[in-house]
């Protein structure tokens, strides 16, 4: 297994031939993200590597979609290009499309074209 920290909550996990990306955030520094109730954060540094340089992403593991510092504009734009997005049940309802929602402690299985290549994800 290889884990590459890209920045903030974003990491590339390479395991068993799979390329899994966590919480995709690829916007440039300087962006302000509002969270409501007068709270916000400002991105002070960009990602260590660009989204384009990552190559194939098999699935995105998304902790939550409703804060821009865990799913920014460029991260959200890349979701339709990924086979599967695994997130919370409410997040999957908001995202639709290729998003699968997991309840706490639920599991799902990722399987590829090779029947021997499967990985189980538990959230």
UniProtKB/TrEMBL annotation:
Its name, as the record gives it, is MBL fold metallo-hydrolase
Q: Which Gene3D superfamilies does its entry note?
A: Ribonuclease Z/Hydroxyacylglutathione hydrolase-like
Which InterPro entries would you find in this protein's record? RibonucZ/Hydroxyglut_hydro (IPR036866), UPF0173_UPF0282_UlaG_hydrolase (IPR050114)
Q: Where is this region: Disordered?
A: 89-123
| Source domain of life | Bacteria
Cite the entry's keywords alphabetically: Hydrolase
Does the record's keyword annotation contain Hydrolase? yes
